[in-house]
Design brief:
alpha+beta, Phosphorylase Kinase, domain 1, Transferase(Phosphotransferase), domain 1, TATA-Binding Protein, 3 domains, six-stranded antiparallel β-sheet, 13 helices, about 20% strand, disordered N terminus, disordered C terminus
Length: about 425
C-alpha cells in the first residue's frame, strides 16, 4: 500500500471486504501510486472501485495552504475547474473534504506532460499545428467563460492515450471579477520564459492577450524545439521579451512565420485575437471545430450551488463532514445560523420546510432549493438553503430570526441529519 502522508481515509458503513481497507478513500477510490507532489499538494493515481475508472486525486493540506495564505487561491482553482467542460481541458469529477484535507478527483491523463515529449525532439509543423489547434480551442472556451489561465506552458499541457492535448493546472487562473476598474488584471504571475511583455511593465494587462502570447511561445517551442526568449540572466531574457527579439528557425514555413509575428507581437493592442487565429491560413489547415456538450444555465446554477456547499464544509475552520448541527457564532445579534449534512433529496427537504411553515401558519416562499418563512408583518423569520455537496449528500443552511421557530424547525429536520462513519487516520 502506498504511504499517504497525513491522509484521512473514510470508509462507508455500506462497504464490505477490501472496500473498507485503509487505502480506500471515502469508501469509493482505491488509492495507488504517487504521481507528483508540490509544496501544498500531492497527486495520486486512484481507481473508482465501483466503475473501475482511473482518476488522479489531488490531496491538498488545508493547514499548509492556510499558512501559505493560499486559501483563496485554491478556492478559485476549484471554482474554475468546476465550471469548465471541454474535451481539451482536464475534467474535475468531484471535490471531497475532511477536516484537514481537500481532495480534488480529476480525470487521469496517462500520456504525461507535453514538455517531456517536445524535450526529446521538436515536432513537425503538422503535429505542432494539431496541438496548437486543440490548445486554442480550449483557451478560447476558457476566455468565453471569463477565465484566463495565465500560466500556459508545455508542463501544464498533458497528452492523453489518444494523443490529444489537455490543459491543466488552473492554479494561477484569473476570472473576470478580478479585473479592476481600469479593465485590467494586475497580479504579476506566470513562468518567466512564457510571460508577456506587458506583464513586465506592471501597469495592468488583458488576461486574454497574455494567454495568446503564451500560446505563441508554446507553438514556437513545439516547432523549434527551443524557447524563443531564453538567457541564463533573467534580466537579459526579460529585455528580449520586452523588445520581441527572437529568431525563427530556417525550417519554418512562411505562413507560420507570419503567424509568429502576430502571436508574439509585443503590442497587446495589435496582437492577434482568438477569432483572428481561427481565420489564419496556417491554423485552418485540417482544422475541425471541436463539438462538445455545453452546460445549460440550470446545470451551471447547480454547479455553483455545489461549490457553495463545498465552501461551507471544506473551507470552514474546524468543520468536518462528521459535524452534524454546527452552530455558528454569528456576528449578528438578530440572526442565528445552523448547518447540517443530509442524505435526503433536496426536494424532500424543501417540502419538509414548506409543510412546517404551513403547519405554523406562516407564509412560505420557495425558489428552487431556497425556502423563506415570512411573518405576519412581512419580515423574514427563517430562510433555508439546500446545497448539493456530492451525489448522495447535501448541506442545509438555516438562517433564523426567531429562536422559538428555530428550535421547532431543528426538531422537525432532525430526522434528515446524515450520520457518517467517523474518520479513520491512515498510515
Amino acid at each position: 500500500m502506498p504511504e499517504i502522508e497525513e491522509q484521512t481515509l473514510i470508509s462507508s458503513s455500506s462497504d464490505s471486504g477490501d472496500n473498507s481497507s485503509e487505502n480506500v478513500l471515502f469508501g469509493k477510490y482505491e488509492v495507488g501510486r504517487l504521481l507528483g507532489c508540490g509544496a501544498f499538494a500531492k497527486v495520486y493515481y486512484a481507481r473508482n472501485i465501483v466503475t473501475g475508472q482511473s482518476v488522479a486525486i489531488k490531496c491538498i493540506s488545508k493547514q499548509k495552504i492556510l499558512k501559505g495564505g493560499l486559501m483563496a487561491h485554491v478556492k478559485r482553482e476549484i471554482s474554475i475547474m468546476r465550471r469548465l467542460r471541454h474535451p481539451n481541458i482536464v475534467k474535475l469529477h468531484e471535490v471531497l473534504a475532511t477536516k484537514t484535507k481537500i481532495y480534488c478527483v480529476m480525470e487521469f491523463v496517462k500520456g504525461g506532460e507535453l514538455f517531456n515529449k517536445v524535450a526529446k525532439a521538436r515536432f513537425s509543423e503538422d503535429l505542432s499545428r494539431r496541438y496548437f489547434q486543440q490548445l486554442i480551442s480550449a483557451i478560447g472556451y476558457c476566455h468565453s467563460h471569463g477565465v484566463f489561465h495565465r500560466d500556459l506552458k508545455p508542463e501544464n499541457l498533458l497528452i492523453d492515450e489518444n494523443g490529444d492535448l489537455k490543459v491543466s493546472d488552473f492554479g494561477l487562473s484569473a476570472v473576470t471579477n478580478q479585473i479592476r476598474n481600469d479593465g485590467m488584471l494586475h497580479t504579476l504571475c506566470g513562468t518567466p520564459a512564457y510571460v508577456a511583455p506587458e506583464i513586465l511593465l506592471k501597469k495592468g494587462y488583458d488576461g486574454a492577450k497574455v494567454d495568446i502570447w503564451s500560446c505563441g511561445v508554446i507553438l514556437f517551442v513545439l516547432n523549434a524545439g527551443y524557447l524563443p526568449f531564453n538567457d541564463p540572466n533573467l534580466m537579459v531574457m526579460y529585455r528580449k521579451i520586452y523588445k520581441g527579439e527572437f529568431r525563427v528557425p530556417k525550417w519554418t514555413s512562411l505562413e507560420l512565420r507570419r503567424l509568429f509575428s502576430r502571436l508574439l507581437d509585443t503590442n497587446p493592442d495589435t496582437r492577434i485575437t482568438i477569432d483572428e487565429i481561427l481565420k489564419d491560413p496556417w491554423f485552418k489547415k485540417g482544422y475541425k471545430q471541436i463539438e462538445f456538450h455545453e452546460f445549460d444555465s440550470k446545470t451551471e446554477k447547480k454547479e455553483e450551488r455545489n461549490l457553495n456547499a463545498f465552501d461551507i464544509i471544506s473551507f470552514s475552520s474546524g468543520v468536518d463532514l462528521s459535524g452534524l448541527f454546527n452552530e455558528s457564532d454569528s456576528s449578528s445579534t438578530t440572526c442565528d445560523r445552523f448547518r447540517f449534512v443530509s442524505g435526503e433529496l433536496p426536494d424532500e427537504i424543501v417540502k419538509k420546510v414548506e409543510d412546517f411553515g404551513k403547519k405554523e401558519e406562516i407564509t412560505v416562499k420557495t425558489s428552487e432549493w431556497t425556502v423563506e418563512l415570512i411573518g405576519q408583518n412581512g419580515n423574514l423569520m427563517i430562510a433555508v438553503d439546500v446545497y448539493r455537496l456530492t451525489e448522495g449528500l447535501v448541506v442545509v443552511e438555516v438562517r433564523s430570526f426567531d429562536k422559538t421557530l428555530k428550535r421547532k424547525l431543528s426538531a422537525e429536520l432532525s430526522s434528515c441529519v446524515y450520520q457518517p462513519v467517523q474518520p479513520v487516520a491512515g498510515n
